[in-house]
Structure prediction request, 415 residues.
Amino acid sequence: MFIMSTHTTSSAHHRNVDRRSDICIVGNGAIAKTAALGLSQAGHSVTLLVPPARPDAPEAPAGGEKPWDVRVYALNHTAHTLLSSLKVWGALDMARVAPVDAMDVQGDGEQGGHLGFDAFGAHAGSLAWIVEDSNLNQALDAALRFAQNVETVTGRACRIVSSAEDVEVELEDGKVLAAQLLVGADGRDSWVRGQCDIGIDYRSYHQRAIVANFACEQPHHNVAYQWFTCKEGIVALLPLPGNKVSLVWSAPDTLADTIMNESLGELAIRLGEYSENKLGLLKPLQPEDVKAIPLALVRPHAITAPRVALIGDAAHAVHPLAGHGMNLGFGDINGLLDTLAARDDHQGLGDERLLARYARARKEDVLLMQLATDGLERLFGANLEPVRVVRNLGLNLLDKLPLVKRRLIAHAMGR
Prediction:
């Protein structure tokens, strides 16, 4: 076990520490960067440990319009409020952000059920906002360059040592980072979580999320469309600015293999079965590629360890059918910020009772999203006629219950 909890000073703590801060965050995604900004603006000194850049990382285009990123997020009001408070939302390229004013959900089969949500019924300006991963990260990177209490360190961690005084992260090059609290924001396959010996419940969905972008013949009117198709998985087309849409197709592995061996033009023809009546013909955006991301449910047995807190996909990975994996991560950041702000004067940032409070604060929200996404995936993945009839009736019934719909959409919006 790489984490050692001891109330005596171990030999490791006699080493020279290259950087000491209140909090060390391991990760290089939007959740790690947002946490670094939020914690630094709360008055804590932060070390952000990021891995070296991959040698095959794509270079930014020299001129002209940037290609549209195939990785997009449907950010809800929780994310919007947090990013606005950190002065990040206003730094986004808003010409590349699309509001979601309505959702159109279609069940499977000729008599498929239907469920619709709209911002007017939810008493909101928008249900969510579609933001590219690159747009969000560029705004976060710009904010971090001006952050007073954040230092970014590039390197690979190889060991964690926790004691009564602090937690140390040893890097492969021999450097040592020390902090009162270590935050693991390093994704679904979290190295930090593994070093803490935190077990996980893992369920592969035997699906991959096929992501690509298309121009559409008809205007989308800022509507997000979703089709539950049973045999072919779940197809979602999310609005982008202009007559463009972003595809997220949670396809069974066999179908995903077929799609990935086809051209984007052939993929557009496949999508026409679902989108033609709504959006007309689809045309792949160029230059463009298509990516496939394996899908799984990951439920860690704990989201804390001695002087360690997990956030984002390191703390939970859910099916993307509701588009809320990233939003759960922003909820984690809010929960951690609130917990640390409410601590007693005598409590250190890595206090065991404080971290237990953070875990309790996040338990209900995360569990509800895990149950909802996993339950819906199981329900709509069952290829039995009686189940098909019941789920389509359920969609139609829910569509006629405005009070229940408002409660559901308010939770999804993060209110």
